Amino acid sequence: MAAKQAVALVAGVGPGTGAAIAKKFASLYSVVLLARTPASYETTVKEINESGGSAIGLPADVQDEASIKSVFEQVTKQFPDKPVAAAIYNVGGVFTRKPFLEQSVENFKLGYQTSVLGAFIFAQAALPHLLSATKSESLPHPPSLFFTGATAAIKGSPYLQSFSPGKFALRSLTQSLSKEFGPEGVHVSHLIVDGIIDTPKTAEWLKGAPEGSKIEPAAIAETYWALHQQPRTTWTWELDVRPYVEKW
Amino acid sequence: MAAKQAVALVAGVGPGTGAAIAKKFASLYSVVLLARTPASYETTVKEINESGGSAIGLPADVQDEASIKSVFEQVTKQFPDKPVAAAIYNVGGVFTRKPFLEQSVENFKLGYQTSVLGAFIFAQAALPHLLSATKSESLPHPPSLFFTGATAAIKGSPYLQSFSPGKFALRSLTQSLSKEFGPEGVHVSHLIVDGIIDTPKTAEWLKGAPEGSKIEPAAIAETYWALHQQPRTTWTWELDVRPYVEKW
Amino acid sequence: MAAKQAVALVAGVGPGTGAAIAKKFASLYSVVLLARTPASYETTVKEINESGGSAIGLPADVQDEASIKSVFEQVTKQFPDKPVAAAIYNVGGVFTRKPFLEQSVENFKLGYQTSVLGAFIFAQAALPHLLSATKSESLPHPPSLFFTGATAAIKGSPYLQSFSPGKFALRSLTQSLSKEFGPEGVHVSHLIVDGIIDTPKTAEWLKGAPEGSKIEPAAIAETYWALHQQPRTTWTWELDVRPYVEKW
Amino acid sequence: MAAKQAVALVAGVGPGTGAAIAKKFASLYSVVLLARTPASYETTVKEINESGGSAIGLPADVQDEASIKSVFEQVTKQFPDKPVAAAIYNVGGVFTRKPFLEQSVENFKLGYQTSVLGAFIFAQAALPHLLSATKSESLPHPPSLFFTGATAAIKGSPYLQSFSPGKFALRSLTQSLSKEFGPEGVHVSHLIVDGIIDTPKTAEWLKGAPEGSKIEPAAIAETYWALHQQPRTTWTWELDVRPYVEKW
After folding, report:
1. pLDDT at A247
2. Exposed e or buried b for every residue in C106-141, given b needs 16+ CB within 10 A?
3. Whose CA is closest to D246, among C187, C88, C89?
4. Do the Cβ atoms of D93 and D115 come closer than 8 Å?
5. Does residue B2 belong to any structural domain of this protein?
6. What does the pLDDT look like over B26-39, one tens digit per residue?
7. What is the pLDDT of residue B7?
8. Is residue D163 a contact partner of residue D111, using CB atoms and an 8 Å limit?
């Protein structure tokens, strides 16, 4: 594998959206895949490298400042002088759906930490690199900082008190960053992915639903890529994607 | 010009966004440009046809049911057996910015008629064709019905009482149509374009602002095209585009 | 009946919310009840006058500038030198629930005209009086201009294309007026009433639903009154009311 | 002091909103004032008791489950057999306004913990009491669980990344609880207080602004009280209060 002209990081890479985004961004960049355990990214890293792309995986805990700091140091070492063209926070909020009075404070914290504390830490580590990248003349597109959200980011629901607050908070964080760093040339967006994503894990879900009721990871990745390609004159800051049959 | 496999209509074609969208959709479809006066679309029609595309222009008054009905009859005659792949309502709301007590009922009605009554009439004429198109096996992408909105669609402001209500109403209409026709296979979206669009008319505006402070019509068109390409599993229903320096 | 120190107008008085609001505001003001036909307000006018209050009814067509202008002239004649303490637009949007392709342009226009064109005309006639009232030293509360909205003001739904756009537009109009006239001392608010209101017409509705599933007109009126009593330092601009069992 | 028929708790009592709410609710209930340090509530407790009301103060750390659990045990002991008529979470989010890259993870956590983790813990302890209270026949109004929000709950802004995410999250939590416990008879509301509140601390702020530019705590308290009085048929779930001159 030969390093590309720039680097894209994807935090939260499982077999679904994260892997698809990494593959798409690998068409132009060396990609760095982050997940808590290597098992989550190994197959994707291999696939990208075998098909002529450039990818590495790094184990990372987005809730841990030191871990994320270390990730960016390794990226700098591995890809010296390569600007960071994109940093994508795709970490799913961990949550447990249950009646509020049976919910634990631990679950509530966990939902928050994965959805938004991790995003805060990741953004703080990524932004200095993205700001530098705005000065790079070799980048074809403005550097991007994208966050994957959920419909729970705009609507609270019963039994989702361990999930939805973190997603609301992530949307707020994204807006604050959009407004602070947009004028600096970093494209910060919040992308709501609403629906069941078609992954091995969900293979048996929605049996009997109309064909096409699950969101395709590859199509999500196309949408992220379309946003990344936008010139700074014409940026999308917030969008949603949902299957055609979704109620909302 | 040889007709393409399908037809796309763009209502509201001036020298800015509408023309850019028409050119982009002409890469795959025969395009039909609608405007109140032929002067608004003649140059664009000529450019598309001269560069190997297929375009016609038709004068149309979106506030007039008979006029729009006639448009679709002409399209059917001109492009027999071609499915309608996209219908895009890009008519700008006419408005006059002034203190409420100096505003006329006529201006208020005009803002409403151009923003949302026209959209209603256009959608009613287009939807039977778009529904038919969902059955077509030759179409590469799901048929699309897109509406151009504004930030005034989500926030009322002083002195904008003749403009913003129509834009709110258009967003409501789009949501109603999304939810009724999405499950039928028609991709209905509301795209907020927020900022000064870079056109001949605005050439002298924003003097002294940072470079890139105006939205590029071609980049808007790319975003519409990206949405049109989405498979029905993964549709964007609402998004915004703004320049990087925009306050919102 | 002896005229009170100030006048409150309620447009859209049937046997439900409008009548309840009129009765509540009659505790402090002479009230003027407006409806298309006297049958809508006669009983309420009588009740108020018989219980020691001061009320008149005037037939009015909110969609007709001349009609509303005439109403305010009559109010000035009937209550000379009395400031207008409140003007409340409670006209229900007329609508027909049906599939979009079966919906008529006439119904669409009607929904818009009753929901928002009438509000525009009413507000233009009322605001000069309300602005004058901000200078009155005898008024106990800031003059108020309130609009009754609906959940359809914030969410589009299938089959509601003749209703929801007008309600979205009304919310926009209210925001524009809030921001223009709030700093002038007029309290402009949008109150979403979401649910079945308990009136003679709905007596047979929601059979089998839990007790208390319908909104009480008198309780709505208390909420309008609570807002009217707020000092200008502490105004509510938007709120909702719903029954405890309502899904939203 | 003689205990009233029921108890109301107010968490987050300083010299502003919390104290005013406690005084207002003391008109009908024994009130329990919670703050981290007794200095925050001592004066208010004394004032209420001296003017014929019934109040106690308890030191409490809303971020600490054990502390809040202990508070409710003490309440039960102090007011045996008295239902809990209202529990109000008015704890201000601690925050530090600064550029994102200078912001610490500690500040971010602190904003979250005070705004929403505390609300979660407080709600979990309060809800069993409020649910019991729905069965009480002596209560004049439905039991209420109110949360004080901020405009930062609906709009992210530059430099507010340590504050706004927690406030978004609190609004989400409130919605989840509204939808789960509303049908059970507990009135759960989110009240946005937007603007500078008139307190000793802000006495020197907004010099030169128009008279009445600060929100009055007593008027906020009236609004909370108006909501508490609403019957379950007609509840407000979300509202805002702002000064008449506020931009929003």
Report:
1. 86
2. ebbbbbbbbbbbbbbbbbbbbbebbbebbeeeebeb
3. C187
4. yes
5. no
6. 999 999 999 999 99
7. 98
8. yes
- Judged by CB atoms within 8 Å, which residues 21-80 of C form the interface with B? 65
Tokens read off for C79? 């209550």
**Are C131 and C138 spatial neighbours (Cβ–Cβ below 8 Å)?**
no
How would you write B184-243 as a 3-class SS string? CCCEEEEEEECCCECCHHHCCCCCCCCCCCCECHHHHHHHHHHHHHCCCCCECCEEEEEC
Task: Write the CB contacts of D154 (distance below 8 Å, at least 6 apart in sequence).
Answer: D168, D171, D192
What is the distance between the alpha carbons of residues C28 and C53, in angstroms, rounded to a whole number? 9
D115-to-A120, C130, D241 alpha-carbon distances in Å: 17, 39, 18
Question: In the numeric block, which tokens belong to residue C92?
Answer: 């229900």
pLDDT in tens, D190-212: 999 999 999 999 999 999 999 99
The number of residues in chain D equals 248
Q: What are phi and psi of D238, to 5 degrees?
A: -145, 135
Find the helix or strand (DSSP H, E) in which B58 lies.
strand B55-59
Residue C157 lies in a domain: yes
| DSSP assigned state of D159 | T
Q: Would the CB atoms of A120 and D108 count as touching at under 8 Å?
A: yes
SS3 A52: coil
CA–CA distance, B27 with B92 (Å, rounded to integer): 24
Average pLDDT estimate for C198-212: 92
Report CA Rg, chain B.
17
- Output the CA–CA distances (angstroms, integers) from residue D219 to C183, D57, D91, in the order listed: 18, 23, 18
- Lookup result for tokens 């009946």: C1
Within 8 A of C216 by CB-CB distance, chain D residues are 231, 233-234
Q: What is the pLDDT of residue D50?
A: 97
Q: Tell me the three-class secondary structure of A140-202, residue by residue.
A: CCCCEEEEEECHHHCCCCCCCCCCHHHHHHHHHHHHHHHHHHCCCCCEEEEEEECCCECCHHH
Min distance A1 CA to chain B CA atoms (Å): 30
Q: Is B64 strand, coil or helix?
A: coil
Residue D1 DSSP code: -
Residue C104 lies in a domain: yes
Region of A206 on the Ramachandran plot (φ > 0 left; ψ -120 to 50 alpha; else beta): left
Residue D36, domain CATH: 3.40.50.720
What gap in Å lies between CA C123 and CA C175, rounded to an integer? 13
Beta strands in chain A (DSSP E): 7-11, 30-35, 55-59, 84-89, 144-149, 187-193, 238-241
Contacts of A198 in chain B (CB under 8 A): 233
Alpha-carbon span D212 to D131, nearest angstrom: 39
What does the alpha-carbon distance between residue B110 and residue B59 come to, in Å, rounded to a whole number? 19
Count the domains in chain A.
Answer: 1
pLDDT at D68: 98
B83 and B133 Cβ atoms separated by less than 8 Å: yes
Report which residue type is found at A227: L
A1 in a domain, yes or no? no
* Residue contact B242–A235, C-beta within 8 A: yes
What is d(CA D146, CA D150) in angstroms, rounded to the nearest whole number?
13
End-to-end alpha-carbon separation of chain A, Å? Answer: 44
pLDDT in tens, C44-73: 999 999 999 999 999 999 999 999 999 999
Contact (Cβ atoms closer than 8 angstroms) between residue B7 and residue B79: yes
Give the closest-approach CA distance of A182 to chain B in angstroms: 5
C151 touches D at CB < 8 Å = no
DSSP D116: I
Return the CA Rg of chain A. Answer: 17
Candidates C129, C161, C238, partner chain B, best to mutate (most B CBs within 10 A): C161
Range of the domain at C42: 7-241
Query: What is the Cβ-side half-sphere exposure of residue A201, based on CA atoms within 13 angstroms?
Result: 8
